[in-house]
Amino acid sequence: MRVLLFTGKGGVGKTTASAATAALAASRGRKTLVISTDPAHSLADALGVPLGAEPTEVDTGLYGMQVDAQRAFERTWRDVQSYLLVVLERAGVDALQAEELTVLPGAEEVLALLEVRKQVQSGLWDLVVVDCAPTGETLRLLALPEALNWYVEKVFPAQRRALRAVRPLLSRVAGPAVPADGVFDAVEKLHRELGDVRQVLTSPEASVRLVLTPEAVVVAEARRTLTSLALYGYRVDGLVANRVFLGGDAWRDGWVAAQGEQLASVRADVAPLPVLESPYLGAEPVGLAALTALGSALYGDTDPAADAPAEELMGLERTTDGFVLSLSLPLARRSDVDLARSGDELVVTVGGHRRVLALPSALRRCVVAGAVLTGGRLAIRFEPDPDVWMRS
Question: What is the pLDDT of residues 104-121, one digit of tens each?
Answer without folding.
Answer: 555 566 677 788 889 999
